[in-house]
Amino acid sequence: MATTNTDAAAPAGRVSRRTGGAPAAAGAGRRGEVHLLSVLGTIALVAWAIIVIAPILWTFLASFKNTSEIFSSPWTLPAQLRVQNWSRAWTKAHVGTYFFNSVLVVALSTFGTMLLGSMAAYVLARYRFWGNRIIYYLFVSGLAFPTFLAIIPLFLIMRQLFLLNTYQGLILVYIAYSLPFTVFFLTAFFKTLPSSIAEAAMIDGAGHTRLFFQVMLPMARSGMVSIGIFNVIGQWAQYLLPVVLMTDPSKRLLTQGIAEISVSAGYEADWSGLFAAVSITILPMIIFYAIFQRQIQAGLTAGALK
Length: 306
Known about the structure:
By secondary structure, this protein is mostly helical. The chain contains 14 helices and no strands. Mean pLDDT is 83; it is low at 1-19.
């Protein structure tokens, strides 16, 4: 009987060891796949960072070189920091005027976009009424409408309204084109805010206007900051709309001015001034994004966390 039990126990132990090894091997295989994907993802991110950073870094270096250095040694450091390239671009190429024109238009259009977009998104997210979904989908459909398809009708409408070559007209167009994404983003964000606080404010006697501006809007600050930064960056880099609607040379924006400098640089060969002007265009957005990077991340993840 003892022999029989020993013989019976031995196969059982071997079977147990075999069955226990299979999950361990599977777990090791999964860990290997995860590690491989992590390595591939890191390689892809490094490659993407190089693709993005290298042209920007090269532009900044070229802005401190002269024309001969730009063509003879494009990948080396400048022999000296020629700050006069930046001053020449700011004054002679009128980049300073274009810069302040862009700041004025982008600041006012972003303010209008955030004000109107937040109010529309709040109503669509927190109130139920007939046509709510229809209005929301009309806003969202604007995301699929390319800008260049409406250029000719937009030009004719602005001319009939006497808004061509005016900052007011361009600001209104910027607001109209920025509203769809703003409403889409903030509607989803306002839905995540707790209803109990709004109900408590209504019980305390707060009206709808006071409830929005003093209670709900401060709660949505992270989302407002995120979408506001996206609007600033998008409107700052806009080129097609100013070219069509702002033909007056004295009212050109920065993107128009850079295009004009690039055209004239082919004849005057002031490539260092051109790269300095491009650097002046890029630098504010890099600084702006670096300052508000945490707010952007907080706004994009707040909805998921809540």
